[in-house]
Design goal:
mainly beta, 9-stranded antiparallel sheet, 3-stranded mixed sheet
């Protein structure tokens, strides 16, 4: 069995989507992406330890991040956004203030990928334990956005389909702070699905199609818990 170890600031990525991420729970720079910088700047660096092991049966990637690395999310300072709590566009007049988990070796993250080839197809299993990468909750007392704990289990399959390449990826997002779905200040658990297909239709021209689905868990409990008029921000 061969091994490799990488320690320090690095760009990490996996999964099958094209700008759609299900099991890639590494930080993204959404501000950079939406202001028009080159797409390679979408992936933000992580301060992490990555250990990879390779064998004839399967390959394993294990990533440990000692301090939570959040997305560089849109908070109103650089880009305006539609504020669902206020029901209107907001920007610097309503900057999102977030309480970020920041204790090293306590507010940490684990991510794993086990993958192998089965003929012409690559099969992978994924796991993640950490926090929602962008704010997915609010503190009722202070009103500050927060990053609730999150665990994710997923799988993917990629390989030839007809004259092109197809992929399917799914993930179950376990929102550990609101498994019953009855806390409207915390995002519910979700099931996410991605189907994709790409094919070269002319020289240097490739057609790509993707279908993405999110399904909220415990939706009825969430709806019953909403105050009259919905959430206020």
């Amino acid at each position: 069995m061969n091994r490799s170890i990488t320690l320090g600031r690095q760009i990490l990525t996996w999964g099958t989507g094209d700008l759609v991420f299900i099991n890639d729970l590494f930080p993204k720079d959404w501000v950079s992406f939406f202001i028009g910088r080159d797409v390679e700047y979408l992936k933000a660096p992580s301060d992490a330890l990555k250990v990879s092991a390779f064998s004839s049966w399967a390959n394993l990637d294990l990533v440990y991040t000692p301090r939570f690395d959040a997305d560089r999310f849109i908070d109103g300072r650089r880009l305006s956004f539609f504020n669902t709590g206020q029901g209107r566009l907001t920007g610097r007049n309503a900057v999102v203030l977030a309480g970020r988990p920041a204790d090293a070796f306590e507010d940490d993250e684990w991510a794993a990928r086990l993958y192998r080839n089965l003929g012409a197809y690559e099969v992978a299993l994924y796991g993640y334990d950490g926090f929602w990468k962008s704010p997915a909750g609010a503190d009722p007392a202070s009103g500050r956005a927060r990053f609730p704990p999150l665990s994710v289990l997923g799988a993917s399959l990629r390989g030839p389909v007809g004259a092109g390449i197809g992929n399917v990826e799914l993930g179950y997002y376990d929102s550990r702070a609101d498994r019953d779905g009855d806390d409207p200040t915390v995002r519910n658990s979700e099931l996410r699905l991605l189907l994709g297909y790409e094919q070269e239709i002319a020289r240097n021209l490739t057609l790509g199609l993707q279908y993405y689905l999110e399904r909220m868990g415990e939706f009825e409990a969430y709806r019953r818990a909403l105050p009259p008029g919905g959430l206020s921000g």
